[in-house]
Amino acid sequence: MIEFKNISKHFDEKQVLQDVSHIMYSGKTNLIIGTSGSGKTVLQKCLVGLYEVDGGEIIYDGLSFTKMNDEEKKMLRQQIGMLFQGSALFDSMTVEGNVKFPLDMFTKDKESEKIKKVNEVLERVNLVGTNNKLPSQLSGGMKKRVGIARAIVLNPKFLFCDEPNSGLDPQTSMLIDKLIHDVTIEFNMTTIINTHDMNSVMEIGNNIIYLKDGKKEWTGNSKDIIFSENKNLNDFIFASEFLQDAKQMRMLEAKGKKI
Amino acid sequence: MRFFSHFGKYFIMLKGMISKPENSKLYWKEFMHQCSEIGMGSLGIVCIISLFMGAVSALQTAYQITSPIMSKLIIAQIIRDTVILEFAPTLICIVLAGVVGSKIASELGNMRVSEQIDAIEIMGINSKTYLIMPKIAAALVTIPMLVILAMVLGIYGGRLTVGISGIISTETYDRGLKELFIPYNVFFAMMKAYTFAFIVSSIPAYFGYYVKGGSLEIGRNSTKSVVVTCVVILFADYILAALLL
Ligand SMILES: Nc1ncnc2c1ncn2[C@@H]1O[C@H](COP(=O)(O)OP(=O)(O)OP(=O)(O)O)[C@@H](O)[C@H]1O
Ligand SMILES: [Mg+2]
Fold it and tell me: Domain limits at A129?
Protein backbone atom coordinates (compact mmCIF):
# COMPACT_ATOMS: atom_id res chain seq x y z
CA MET A 1 0.00 0.00 0.00
CA ILE A 2 1.23 3.44 -0.85
CA GLU A 3 -0.37 6.45 0.72
CA PHE A 4 0.50 9.99 -0.24
CA LYS A 5 -0.70 13.19 1.29
CA ASN A 6 -0.69 16.71 -0.10
CA ILE A 7 2.00 16.18 -2.72
CA SER A 8 3.05 19.42 -4.39
CA LYS A 9 5.69 19.94 -7.02
CA HIS A 10 6.73 22.84 -9.18
CA PHE A 11 9.33 23.37 -11.89
CA ASP A 12 10.58 26.95 -12.11
CA GLU A 13 7.43 29.06 -12.42
CA LYS A 14 5.13 26.18 -13.21
CA GLN A 15 3.09 24.45 -10.51
CA VAL A 16 2.80 20.89 -11.82
CA LEU A 17 1.20 19.13 -8.84
CA GLN A 18 -0.93 20.70 -6.19
CA ASP A 19 -1.96 19.01 -2.95
CA VAL A 20 -2.55 15.57 -4.44
CA SER A 21 -3.52 12.92 -1.87
CA HIS A 22 -4.59 9.35 -2.41
CA ILE A 23 -4.15 5.76 -1.28
CA MET A 24 -2.89 3.08 -3.68
CA TYR A 25 -3.86 -0.42 -2.55
CA SER A 26 -1.90 -3.63 -2.76
CA GLY A 27 -3.28 -6.43 -4.89
CA LYS A 28 -5.01 -3.82 -7.03
CA THR A 29 -4.24 -2.05 -10.26
CA ASN A 30 -4.31 1.62 -9.32
CA LEU A 31 -4.65 3.95 -12.28
CA ILE A 32 -3.59 7.55 -12.71
CA ILE A 33 -5.43 9.05 -15.65
CA GLY A 34 -5.48 12.52 -17.13
CA THR A 35 -4.79 14.48 -20.28
CA SER A 36 -1.30 14.81 -21.69
CA GLY A 37 0.67 17.20 -19.54
CA SER A 38 -1.59 16.86 -16.50
CA GLY A 39 1.27 15.66 -14.31
CA LYS A 40 0.97 11.86 -14.29
CA THR A 41 4.62 11.15 -14.99
CA VAL A 42 5.74 13.79 -12.53
CA LEU A 43 3.48 12.28 -9.84
CA GLN A 44 4.97 8.81 -10.36
CA LYS A 45 8.48 10.14 -10.28
CA CYS A 46 7.72 12.04 -7.09
CA LEU A 47 6.36 8.86 -5.50
CA VAL A 48 9.57 6.92 -6.19
CA GLY A 49 11.76 9.85 -5.26
CA LEU A 50 13.25 10.66 -8.66
CA TYR A 51 11.87 14.15 -8.17
CA GLU A 52 11.98 15.73 -4.76
CA VAL A 53 8.56 16.93 -3.65
CA ASP A 54 8.03 20.52 -2.47
CA GLY A 55 5.72 19.35 0.28
CA GLY A 56 3.62 16.44 1.42
CA GLU A 57 4.28 12.95 2.65
CA ILE A 58 4.64 9.57 0.95
CA ILE A 59 4.11 6.41 2.97
CA TYR A 60 5.05 2.91 1.79
CA ASP A 61 3.42 0.21 3.89
CA GLY A 62 3.40 2.46 6.93
CA LEU A 63 6.96 3.71 6.47
CA SER A 64 7.44 7.35 5.63
CA PHE A 65 9.43 7.52 2.40
CA THR A 66 9.91 11.26 2.70
CA LYS A 67 11.73 10.81 6.00
CA MET A 68 14.02 8.00 4.87
CA ASN A 69 17.73 8.53 4.35
CA ASP A 70 19.46 7.57 1.10
CA GLU A 71 20.40 4.09 2.27
CA GLU A 72 16.85 3.29 3.43
CA LYS A 73 15.46 4.60 0.17
CA LYS A 74 17.86 2.36 -1.70
CA MET A 75 16.69 -0.68 0.26
CA LEU A 76 13.05 0.15 -0.42
CA ARG A 77 13.75 0.67 -4.11
CA GLN A 78 15.01 -2.87 -4.39
CA GLN A 79 11.34 -3.81 -4.02
CA ILE A 80 10.20 -1.40 -6.72
CA GLY A 81 9.85 -2.18 -10.40
CA MET A 82 9.35 0.66 -12.81
CA LEU A 83 8.54 1.01 -16.46
CA PHE A 84 9.47 4.41 -17.83
CA GLN A 85 7.42 6.25 -20.41
CA GLY A 86 10.41 6.10 -22.78
CA SER A 87 11.27 2.50 -21.76
CA ALA A 88 14.80 3.49 -20.59
CA LEU A 89 16.41 0.24 -21.71
CA PHE A 90 20.19 0.00 -21.33
CA ASP A 91 21.23 0.40 -24.92
CA SER A 92 24.59 -1.27 -24.50
CA MET A 93 22.89 -4.52 -23.49
CA THR A 94 20.77 -7.02 -25.37
CA VAL A 95 17.16 -7.73 -24.46
CA GLU A 96 18.32 -10.66 -22.37
CA GLY A 97 21.00 -8.52 -20.70
CA ASN A 98 18.44 -5.88 -19.83
CA VAL A 99 15.99 -8.29 -18.25
CA LYS A 100 18.74 -10.26 -16.52
CA PHE A 101 20.40 -7.17 -15.07
CA PRO A 102 18.29 -6.97 -11.87
CA LEU A 103 18.74 -10.71 -11.37
CA ASP A 104 22.51 -10.40 -11.77
CA MET A 105 22.61 -7.54 -9.33
CA PHE A 106 20.36 -8.83 -6.59
CA THR A 107 20.18 -12.61 -6.72
CA LYS A 108 22.71 -15.34 -6.26
CA ASP A 109 20.96 -17.75 -8.63
CA LYS A 110 22.90 -19.91 -11.04
CA GLU A 111 23.28 -18.58 -14.57
CA SER A 112 20.98 -21.26 -16.01
CA GLU A 113 18.25 -20.39 -13.51
CA LYS A 114 18.51 -16.72 -14.38
CA ILE A 115 18.23 -17.45 -18.09
CA LYS A 116 15.20 -19.63 -17.40
CA LYS A 117 13.56 -16.83 -15.43
CA VAL A 118 14.36 -14.32 -18.20
CA ASN A 119 12.81 -16.56 -20.81
CA GLU A 120 9.74 -16.98 -18.63
CA VAL A 121 9.06 -13.26 -18.39
CA LEU A 122 9.90 -12.71 -22.04
CA GLU A 123 7.29 -15.29 -22.86
CA ARG A 124 4.76 -13.50 -20.68
CA VAL A 125 5.27 -10.28 -22.62
CA ASN A 126 5.13 -12.16 -25.91
CA LEU A 127 8.75 -11.63 -26.89
CA VAL A 128 10.07 -15.15 -27.29
CA GLY A 129 13.26 -15.38 -29.35
CA THR A 130 14.32 -11.73 -29.10
CA ASN A 131 16.96 -12.48 -26.44
CA ASN A 132 19.94 -11.37 -28.49
CA LYS A 133 18.47 -8.27 -30.09
CA LEU A 134 19.72 -4.84 -29.07
CA PRO A 135 17.23 -2.15 -28.03
CA SER A 136 18.04 -0.21 -31.20
CA GLN A 137 16.73 -3.15 -33.22
CA LEU A 138 13.32 -3.14 -31.51
CA SER A 139 10.11 -1.26 -32.25
CA GLY A 140 8.71 1.18 -29.71
CA GLY A 141 6.09 -1.26 -28.50
CA MET A 142 8.64 -4.06 -28.17
CA LYS A 143 10.88 -1.81 -26.07
CA LYS A 144 7.90 -1.12 -23.81
CA ARG A 145 7.39 -4.83 -23.33
CA VAL A 146 11.06 -5.45 -22.57
CA GLY A 147 10.77 -2.61 -20.04
CA ILE A 148 7.83 -4.38 -18.41
CA ALA A 149 9.71 -7.66 -18.38
CA ARG A 150 12.64 -5.97 -16.65
CA ALA A 151 10.32 -4.30 -14.13
CA ILE A 152 8.56 -7.51 -13.08
CA VAL A 153 11.42 -9.99 -13.26
CA LEU A 154 12.13 -9.75 -9.52
CA ASN A 155 8.42 -9.83 -8.55
CA PRO A 156 8.57 -6.39 -6.94
CA LYS A 157 6.24 -5.36 -4.14
CA PHE A 158 5.52 -2.06 -5.85
CA LEU A 159 5.14 -1.78 -9.59
CA PHE A 160 5.06 1.54 -11.42
CA CYS A 161 4.14 1.60 -15.09
CA ASP A 162 4.15 4.81 -17.09
CA GLU A 163 1.86 4.21 -20.05
CA PRO A 164 2.55 0.49 -20.45
CA ASN A 165 0.40 0.22 -23.55
CA SER A 166 0.98 3.39 -25.48
CA GLY A 167 2.28 2.44 -28.90
CA LEU A 168 0.81 -1.05 -28.78
CA ASP A 169 -1.94 -2.48 -30.97
CA PRO A 170 -5.24 -3.18 -29.16
CA GLN A 171 -4.60 -6.90 -28.97
CA THR A 172 -1.09 -6.68 -27.48
CA SER A 173 -2.31 -3.85 -25.31
CA MET A 174 -4.98 -6.10 -23.80
CA LEU A 175 -2.39 -8.80 -23.27
CA ILE A 176 -0.15 -6.42 -21.36
CA ASP A 177 -3.05 -5.13 -19.26
CA LYS A 178 -3.97 -8.69 -18.40
CA LEU A 179 -0.37 -9.54 -17.58
CA ILE A 180 0.01 -6.58 -15.24
CA HIS A 181 -3.34 -7.33 -13.66
CA ASP A 182 -2.43 -11.00 -13.18
CA VAL A 183 0.97 -10.42 -11.58
CA THR A 184 -0.55 -7.77 -9.37
CA ILE A 185 -2.99 -10.27 -7.93
CA GLU A 186 -0.60 -13.22 -7.97
CA PHE A 187 2.12 -11.44 -5.98
CA ASN A 188 -0.15 -8.99 -4.15
CA MET A 189 1.73 -6.05 -5.67
CA THR A 190 0.81 -2.43 -5.31
CA THR A 191 0.60 -1.49 -8.96
CA ILE A 192 0.36 2.07 -10.18
CA ILE A 193 -0.31 2.66 -13.86
CA ASN A 194 -0.35 5.91 -15.78
CA THR A 195 -2.59 5.66 -18.76
CA HIS A 196 -4.92 7.39 -21.12
CA ASP A 197 -6.03 4.18 -22.71
CA MET A 198 -9.79 3.83 -22.19
CA ASN A 199 -9.69 0.09 -22.62
CA SER A 200 -7.33 -0.23 -19.69
CA VAL A 201 -9.46 2.09 -17.61
CA MET A 202 -12.52 -0.08 -18.16
CA GLU A 203 -10.76 -3.43 -17.91
CA ILE A 204 -8.39 -3.04 -14.99
CA GLY A 205 -9.41 0.21 -13.28
CA ASN A 206 -9.73 -0.97 -9.68
CA ASN A 207 -8.86 2.36 -8.17
CA ILE A 208 -8.63 5.38 -10.42
CA ILE A 209 -7.41 8.87 -9.77
CA TYR A 210 -8.10 11.51 -12.38
CA LEU A 211 -5.64 14.37 -12.52
CA LYS A 212 -6.45 17.67 -14.12
CA ASP A 213 -3.86 20.42 -14.25
CA GLY A 214 -1.97 18.81 -11.40
CA LYS A 215 -4.97 18.51 -9.07
CA LYS A 216 -6.97 15.48 -8.08
CA GLU A 217 -10.28 16.02 -9.81
CA TRP A 218 -12.04 12.71 -9.32
CA THR A 219 -11.49 9.26 -7.90
CA GLY A 220 -13.35 5.96 -8.10
CA ASN A 221 -13.33 2.68 -10.02
CA SER A 222 -14.25 1.64 -13.55
CA LYS A 223 -17.92 1.20 -12.65
CA ASP A 224 -18.20 4.59 -10.98
CA ILE A 225 -16.76 6.24 -14.05
CA ILE A 226 -19.84 5.37 -16.12
CA PHE A 227 -22.11 7.20 -13.75
CA SER A 228 -19.82 10.06 -12.97
CA GLU A 229 -21.39 13.48 -13.24
CA ASN A 230 -18.01 15.21 -13.42
CA LYS A 231 -18.04 17.12 -16.69
CA ASN A 232 -14.25 17.32 -17.12
CA LEU A 233 -13.92 13.59 -16.52
CA ASN A 234 -16.73 12.77 -18.93
CA ASP A 235 -15.24 14.99 -21.61
CA PHE A 236 -11.88 13.31 -21.10
CA ILE A 237 -12.99 9.68 -20.92
CA PHE A 238 -15.86 9.67 -23.37
CA ALA A 239 -14.24 11.94 -25.88
CA SER A 240 -15.45 10.17 -29.02
CA GLU A 241 -19.06 9.58 -30.07
CA PHE A 242 -18.40 5.89 -30.10
CA LEU A 243 -17.43 5.94 -26.45
CA GLN A 244 -20.39 8.16 -25.56
CA ASP A 245 -22.69 5.59 -27.10
CA ALA A 246 -20.96 2.86 -25.15
CA LYS A 247 -21.49 4.83 -21.96
CA GLN A 248 -25.21 5.22 -22.71
CA MET A 249 -25.51 1.49 -23.35
CA ARG A 250 -23.79 0.61 -20.12
CA MET A 251 -25.95 3.00 -18.16
CA LEU A 252 -29.13 1.58 -19.68
CA GLU A 253 -27.93 -1.93 -18.98
CA ALA A 254 -27.25 -1.07 -15.36
CA LYS A 255 -30.67 0.58 -14.97
CA GLY A 256 -32.36 -2.40 -16.57
CA LYS A 257 -30.79 -4.69 -14.01
CA LYS A 258 -32.05 -2.57 -11.15
CA ILE A 259 -35.68 -2.71 -12.37
CA MET B 1 29.47 32.01 -8.69
CA ARG B 2 28.68 29.34 -11.31
CA PHE B 3 32.22 28.06 -10.86
CA PHE B 4 31.71 27.46 -7.14
CA SER B 5 28.38 25.73 -7.63
CA HIS B 6 29.96 23.38 -10.18
CA PHE B 7 32.87 22.84 -7.85
CA GLY B 8 30.58 21.95 -4.95
CA LYS B 9 28.39 19.68 -7.03
CA TYR B 10 31.47 17.94 -8.39
CA PHE B 11 32.66 17.08 -4.89
CA ILE B 12 29.20 15.99 -3.81
CA MET B 13 29.19 13.64 -6.80
CA LEU B 14 32.57 12.22 -5.78
CA LYS B 15 31.37 11.75 -2.22
CA GLY B 16 28.12 10.12 -3.34
CA MET B 17 30.14 7.75 -5.46
CA ILE B 18 31.78 6.15 -2.48
CA SER B 19 29.49 3.42 -1.22
CA LYS B 20 29.47 -0.31 -0.90
CA PRO B 21 28.79 -2.06 -4.22
CA GLU B 22 25.51 -3.96 -4.24
CA ASN B 23 27.14 -6.86 -6.04
CA SER B 24 30.92 -6.89 -6.29
CA LYS B 25 31.00 -9.37 -9.17
CA LEU B 26 29.03 -7.07 -11.45
CA TYR B 27 31.10 -4.09 -10.44
CA TRP B 28 34.26 -6.02 -11.21
CA LYS B 29 32.90 -6.91 -14.62
CA GLU B 30 32.07 -3.26 -15.29
CA PHE B 31 35.56 -2.26 -14.12
CA MET B 32 37.23 -4.73 -16.49
CA HIS B 33 35.01 -3.53 -19.31
CA GLN B 34 36.03 0.08 -18.65
CA CYS B 35 39.70 -0.91 -18.51
CA SER B 36 39.45 -2.32 -21.98
CA GLU B 37 37.39 0.66 -23.20
CA ILE B 38 39.77 3.26 -21.82
CA GLY B 39 43.05 1.38 -22.09
CA MET B 40 42.74 -0.61 -25.28
CA GLY B 41 40.52 2.01 -26.86
CA SER B 42 43.25 4.63 -26.79
CA LEU B 43 46.26 2.38 -27.25
CA GLY B 44 46.64 3.09 -30.95
CA ILE B 45 46.56 6.85 -30.75
CA VAL B 46 48.94 6.85 -27.78
CA CYS B 47 51.47 4.76 -29.72
CA ILE B 48 51.37 6.98 -32.78
CA ILE B 49 51.61 10.20 -30.81
CA SER B 50 54.50 9.03 -28.62
CA LEU B 51 56.61 7.84 -31.53
CA PHE B 52 56.20 11.14 -33.36
CA MET B 53 56.66 13.15 -30.20
CA GLY B 54 60.07 11.51 -29.67
CA ALA B 55 60.99 11.84 -33.31
CA VAL B 56 60.13 15.52 -33.52
CA SER B 57 61.89 16.42 -30.32
CA ALA B 58 65.00 14.64 -31.60
CA LEU B 59 65.02 16.73 -34.78
CA GLN B 60 64.31 19.98 -32.97
CA THR B 61 66.84 19.42 -30.23
CA ALA B 62 69.52 18.65 -32.79
CA TYR B 63 68.54 21.79 -34.68
CA GLN B 64 68.93 23.94 -31.58
CA ILE B 65 72.18 22.43 -30.36
CA THR B 66 74.70 23.59 -32.92
CA SER B 67 77.56 24.60 -30.70
CA PRO B 68 80.55 22.29 -31.30
CA ILE B 69 81.72 22.49 -27.68
CA MET B 70 78.57 20.84 -26.37
CA SER B 71 78.66 17.11 -25.94
CA LYS B 72 76.44 15.27 -28.42
CA LEU B 73 75.29 13.13 -25.54
CA ILE B 74 73.18 16.03 -24.36
CA ILE B 75 70.75 15.53 -27.23
CA ALA B 76 69.74 12.16 -25.84
CA GLN B 77 69.42 13.58 -22.35
CA ILE B 78 67.22 16.45 -23.45
CA ILE B 79 64.93 14.11 -25.35
CA ARG B 80 64.78 11.72 -22.41
CA ASP B 81 63.97 14.39 -19.87
CA THR B 82 61.39 16.30 -21.90
CA VAL B 83 59.62 13.10 -22.85
CA ILE B 84 59.56 11.77 -19.28
CA LEU B 85 58.78 15.03 -17.53
CA GLU B 86 56.34 16.71 -19.83
CA PHE B 87 55.47 15.05 -23.09
CA ALA B 88 54.47 11.61 -21.93
CA PRO B 89 52.32 12.56 -18.96
CA THR B 90 50.89 15.93 -19.98
CA LEU B 91 50.58 15.73 -23.73
CA ILE B 92 49.20 12.20 -23.65
CA CYS B 93 46.64 13.11 -20.99
CA ILE B 94 45.54 16.14 -22.99
CA VAL B 95 44.94 13.84 -25.92
CA LEU B 96 43.14 11.38 -23.65
CA ALA B 97 40.91 14.22 -22.46
CA GLY B 98 39.62 14.30 -26.00
CA VAL B 99 39.53 10.56 -26.62
CA VAL B 100 38.42 9.18 -23.25
CA GLY B 101 36.82 12.27 -21.73
CA SER B 102 34.38 12.95 -24.53
CA LYS B 103 33.39 9.29 -24.58
CA ILE B 104 32.68 9.23 -20.85
CA ALA B 105 30.74 12.50 -21.00
CA SER B 106 28.58 11.52 -23.94
CA GLU B 107 27.95 8.00 -22.67
CA LEU B 108 26.75 9.21 -19.28
CA GLY B 109 24.90 12.12 -20.87
CA ASN B 110 23.00 9.78 -23.12
CA MET B 111 22.14 7.54 -20.19
CA ARG B 112 20.87 10.54 -18.24
CA VAL B 113 18.73 11.92 -21.05
CA SER B 114 17.19 8.55 -21.92
CA GLU B 115 16.39 7.93 -18.23
CA GLN B 116 18.74 4.94 -18.00
CA ILE B 117 20.38 6.49 -14.94
CA ASP B 118 16.94 6.87 -13.34
CA ALA B 119 16.22 3.24 -14.18
CA ILE B 120 19.39 2.17 -12.38
CA GLU B 121 18.59 4.40 -9.42
CA ILE B 122 15.07 3.00 -9.15
CA MET B 123 16.34 -0.57 -8.97
CA GLY B 124 18.00 0.40 -5.70
CA ILE B 125 21.48 0.72 -7.16
CA ASN B 126 23.67 3.72 -6.46
CA SER B 127 24.06 4.94 -10.03
CA LYS B 128 27.08 7.07 -9.18
CA THR B 129 28.88 4.12 -7.70
CA TYR B 130 27.93 1.79 -10.50
CA LEU B 131 28.56 4.11 -13.41
CA ILE B 132 31.29 6.50 -12.32
CA MET B 133 33.51 4.61 -9.90
CA PRO B 134 34.53 1.83 -12.33
CA LYS B 135 35.41 4.48 -14.92
CA ILE B 136 37.64 6.43 -12.54
CA ALA B 137 39.23 3.26 -11.20
CA ALA B 138 39.88 1.98 -14.72
CA ALA B 139 41.41 5.32 -15.70
CA LEU B 140 43.66 5.25 -12.63
CA VAL B 141 44.88 1.80 -13.60
CA THR B 142 45.24 2.14 -17.34
CA ILE B 143 46.28 5.74 -17.95
CA PRO B 144 49.55 5.54 -15.95
CA MET B 145 50.34 2.40 -17.94
CA LEU B 146 49.72 4.28 -21.16
CA VAL B 147 51.99 7.05 -19.89
CA ILE B 148 54.81 4.58 -19.22
CA LEU B 149 54.31 3.16 -22.68
CA ALA B 150 54.44 6.68 -24.10
CA MET B 151 57.75 7.31 -22.32
CA VAL B 152 59.29 4.19 -23.77
CA LEU B 153 57.97 4.77 -27.26
CA GLY B 154 58.86 8.46 -27.17
CA ILE B 155 62.47 7.75 -26.31
CA TYR B 156 62.52 4.95 -28.86
CA GLY B 157 61.11 7.30 -31.49
CA GLY B 158 63.95 9.69 -30.75
CA ARG B 159 66.46 6.88 -31.12
CA LEU B 160 65.06 5.86 -34.48
CA THR B 161 65.18 9.43 -35.73
CA VAL B 162 68.74 10.23 -34.67
CA GLY B 163 69.83 6.98 -36.28
CA ILE B 164 68.01 7.53 -39.55
CA SER B 165 68.93 11.18 -39.97
CA GLY B 166 72.48 10.63 -38.77
CA ILE B 167 72.40 13.27 -36.03
CA ILE B 168 74.30 11.02 -33.67
CA SER B 169 74.87 7.29 -33.72
CA THR B 170 72.43 5.13 -31.82
CA GLU B 171 75.28 3.97 -29.58
CA THR B 172 75.96 7.55 -28.52
CA TYR B 173 72.23 8.03 -27.98
CA ASP B 174 72.04 4.98 -25.73
CA ARG B 175 75.08 6.13 -23.79
CA GLY B 176 73.55 9.57 -23.38
CA LEU B 177 70.32 8.08 -22.03
CA LYS B 178 72.15 6.39 -19.18
CA GLU B 179 74.12 9.43 -18.12
CA LEU B 180 72.79 11.88 -15.53
CA PHE B 181 69.57 9.97 -15.19
CA ILE B 182 67.42 11.12 -12.24
CA PRO B 183 64.98 8.41 -11.13
CA TYR B 184 62.94 11.01 -9.25
CA ASN B 185 61.81 12.37 -12.62
CA VAL B 186 59.99 9.14 -13.32
CA PHE B 187 58.34 9.28 -9.91
CA PHE B 188 57.31 12.86 -10.61
CA ALA B 189 55.90 11.87 -14.00
CA MET B 190 53.89 9.08 -12.41
CA MET B 191 52.43 11.49 -9.86
CA LYS B 192 51.33 13.60 -12.77
CA ALA B 193 49.91 10.58 -14.56
CA TYR B 194 47.76 9.56 -11.59
CA THR B 195 46.52 13.10 -11.03
CA PHE B 196 45.67 13.58 -14.69
CA ALA B 197 44.03 10.16 -14.91
CA PHE B 198 41.68 11.19 -12.13
CA ILE B 199 40.96 14.51 -13.82
CA VAL B 200 40.43 12.95 -17.26
CA SER B 201 37.82 10.53 -15.91
CA SER B 202 36.05 12.45 -13.16
CA ILE B 203 35.46 15.83 -14.82
CA PRO B 204 33.83 14.42 -17.97
CA ALA B 205 31.84 12.07 -15.74
CA TYR B 206 30.52 15.09 -13.87
CA PHE B 207 29.53 16.89 -17.06
CA GLY B 208 27.88 13.79 -18.46
CA TYR B 209 26.10 12.69 -15.31
CA TYR B 210 24.37 16.02 -14.77
CA VAL B 211 23.25 16.72 -18.34
CA LYS B 212 19.80 18.28 -18.54
CA GLY B 213 17.88 18.38 -21.78
CA GLY B 214 18.43 16.43 -24.99
CA SER B 215 21.01 15.42 -27.55
CA LEU B 216 22.02 19.03 -28.13
CA GLU B 217 23.07 19.39 -24.51
CA ILE B 218 24.92 16.06 -24.58
CA GLY B 219 27.08 17.39 -27.39
CA ARG B 220 27.55 20.73 -25.71
CA ASN B 221 28.46 19.24 -22.36
CA SER B 222 30.84 16.79 -23.91
CA THR B 223 32.72 19.60 -25.66
CA LYS B 224 32.67 21.65 -22.50
CA SER B 225 34.02 18.75 -20.49
CA VAL B 226 37.00 18.34 -22.84
CA VAL B 227 37.84 22.04 -22.64
CA VAL B 228 37.54 22.14 -18.85
CA THR B 229 39.54 18.92 -18.48
CA CYS B 230 42.39 20.31 -20.61
CA VAL B 231 42.53 23.55 -18.67
CA VAL B 232 42.47 21.73 -15.33
CA ILE B 233 45.24 19.38 -16.49
CA LEU B 234 47.48 22.28 -17.42
CA PHE B 235 46.69 24.02 -14.16
CA ALA B 236 47.43 20.88 -12.16
CA ASP B 237 50.60 20.44 -14.19
CA TYR B 238 51.77 23.85 -13.02
CA ILE B 239 50.85 23.21 -9.39
CA LEU B 240 52.61 19.84 -9.35
CA ALA B 241 55.73 21.30 -10.90
CA ALA B 242 55.75 24.10 -8.35
CA LEU B 243 55.21 21.70 -5.46
CA LEU B 244 57.35 18.72 -6.38
CA LEU B 245 60.28 20.02 -8.38
N1 LIG C 1 11.81 18.04 -15.72
C2 LIG C 1 10.85 18.96 -15.95
N3 LIG C 1 11.16 20.26 -15.93
C4 LIG C 1 10.22 21.20 -16.14
N5 LIG C 1 8.93 20.94 -16.38
C6 LIG C 1 8.55 19.66 -16.41
C7 LIG C 1 9.49 18.59 -16.20
N8 LIG C 1 8.84 17.41 -16.29
C9 LIG C 1 7.55 17.73 -16.55
N10 LIG C 1 7.37 19.07 -16.63
C11 LIG C 1 6.08 19.75 -16.87
O12 LIG C 1 5.13 19.17 -16.01
C13 LIG C 1 3.89 19.02 -16.66
C14 LIG C 1 3.38 17.62 -16.47
O15 LIG C 1 4.22 16.73 -17.18
P16 LIG C 1 4.04 15.16 -17.16
O17 LIG C 1 5.18 14.59 -17.88
O18 LIG C 1 3.80 14.71 -15.77
O19 LIG C 1 2.71 14.96 -18.00
P20 LIG C 1 1.91 13.60 -18.27
O21 LIG C 1 0.62 13.71 -17.56
O22 LIG C 1 2.77 12.44 -17.93
O23 LIG C 1 1.68 13.70 -19.82
P24 LIG C 1 1.74 12.53 -20.93
O25 LIG C 1 0.44 11.83 -20.88
O26 LIG C 1 1.90 13.30 -22.20
O27 LIG C 1 2.90 11.68 -20.62
C28 LIG C 1 4.09 19.43 -18.11
O29 LIG C 1 3.51 20.68 -18.29
C30 LIG C 1 5.59 19.53 -18.27
O31 LIG C 1 5.88 20.63 -19.08
MG1 LIG D 1 3.73 11.02 -18.94
Answer: 95-155
Residues in Cβ contact with B171 at an 8 Å cutoff, skipping those fewer than 6 apart: none
The tally of domains found in chain A comes to 2
Which ranges of A34-161 does DSSP label H, i.e. alpha helix? Answer: 40-48, 70-77, 95-106, 111-124, 140-152
> In this complex, is the C-beta atom of A249 within 8 Å of any C-beta atom belonging to chain B?
no
Closest chain B CA to residue A77: B124
A3 and A74 share a domain?
Answer: yes
Chain centroid, CA A38 distance in Å: 16
CB contact under 8 A, A91 and B116: yes
SS (H, E, C) A217-256: EEEECHHHHHHCCCHHHHHHHCCCHHHHHHHHHHHHHHHH
Same domain, A15 and A31: yes
Q: Which of residues 93-152 of A touch B (CB under 8 A)?
A: 101-102, 104-106
Q: Give the domain range for residue B102.
A: 23-244
pTM as predicted: 0.92
Position in ligand 1 atom list of the atom nearest CA A44: 18
Cβ neighbours of A75 in B, within 8 Å: 124
How would you write the pLDDT of chain B (245 residues) with one tens digit per residue?
A: 788 999 999 999 999 999 999 899 999 999 999 999 999 999 999 999 999 999 999 999 888 877 777 777 888 888 999 999 999 999 999 999 999 999 999 999 999 999 999 999 999 999 999 999 999 999 999 999 999 999 999 999 999 998 888 888 888 888 888 888 888 999 999 999 999 999 999 999 999 999 999 999 999 999 999 999 999 999 999 999 999 87
Residues B123 and A102 sit within 8 Å (Cβ to Cβ):
yes
Contact B162, B59 (CB under 8 A): no
Closest-CA distance, A250 to chain B, in angstroms, reads 40
Question: Residue whose CA is closest, atom 25 of ligand 1?
Answer: A36
Q: Which of A10, A11, A17, A195 should be mutated for ligand 1, with most atoms under 8 A from CB?
A: A11
Count up the domains in chain B and report the number. 1
**A87 CB-side CA count, 13 A:** 22
Q: Is A56 left (phi over 0), alpha (psi -120 to 50) or beta?
A: left
Query: What is the predicted ipTM?
Result: 0.92
Is A34's C-beta closer than 6 angstroms to any atom of ligand 1?
yes
Report how far residue A212's alpha carbon sits from residue A215's, in angstroms, rounded to the nearest whole number: 5
Q: How many CA atoms lie within 13 A of B18 on its CB side?
A: 4
User: Cβ–Cβ of A91/B125 closer than 8 Å?
Assistant: no
Q: Rounded to whole angstroms, how far apart are CA atoms B56 and B50?
A: 10
